[in-house]
Write a structure and sequence with these properties.
21% strand, globular, five-stranded mixed sheet, disordered N terminus
Length: 169
């Protein structure tokens, strides 16, 4: 139980979500910018490479049949990113209500215990959160990925970019 509380506390400390609206979140452009931001963060991809982490990670909204966007990760680095096409063999699929994503992005509350999949607002449709949570060498990068996610913003013209100043904390 202490490990669960510790993981929830780490989530709260490491996540700060920037402003993007839920309609643009996980779009093709957004996912590509997220993939670039991921690869620009050695604390994320180098640690995952040491664990031989290779997976297809998808994100989306509860109640929808398919995720919205995916990252293909090989040895810790994103090799492709974009909108979900239906062709991916998904290893991880994290979902949340549109309102929860949006609220979390606007208010930073996604970094509180409301985010932790074990508390129900977000959940894995695919992937074993508990196996990941038991592996200390992957917990840190998992948390860091959301910190990186927070650096991606969507412009009015629909393009996405990384705001590099947010990832340094």
């Amino acid at each position: 139980m202490k490990q669960i509380a510790k993981i929830a506390a780490i989530v709260g400390l490491f996540l700060y979500m920037g402003a993007a609206n839920a309609a643009d979140l996980f779009s093709d452009a957004w996912m590509k910018a997220f993939g670039e931001a991921w690869n620009n963060e050695p604390a994320l991809h180098e640690k995952l490479a040491k664990t031989d982490f290779s997976s297809t990670i998808c994100y989306g909204f509860k109640g929808e049949d398919d995720p919205k966007g995916c990252l293909d990760v090989e040895d810790g680095k994103v090799t492709s990113a974009g909108a979900y096409s239906g062709e991916e063999e998904v290893d991880w699929d994290l979902r949340g209500e549109k309102d929860d994503w949006e609220k979390g992005l606007e208010e930073g509350s996604i970094g509180t215990t409301d985010f932790a999949p074990i508390f129900g607002n977000f959940k894995f449709n695919k992937g074993n959160y508990w196996d990941m949570a038991k592996n200390p060498s992957r917990v840190g990068p998992f948390m860091k990925s959301f910190k990186i996610m927070a650096t991606v913003t969507v412009e009015e013209d629909g393009t996405a970019e990384e705001a590099t100043d947010n990832a340094d904390d």
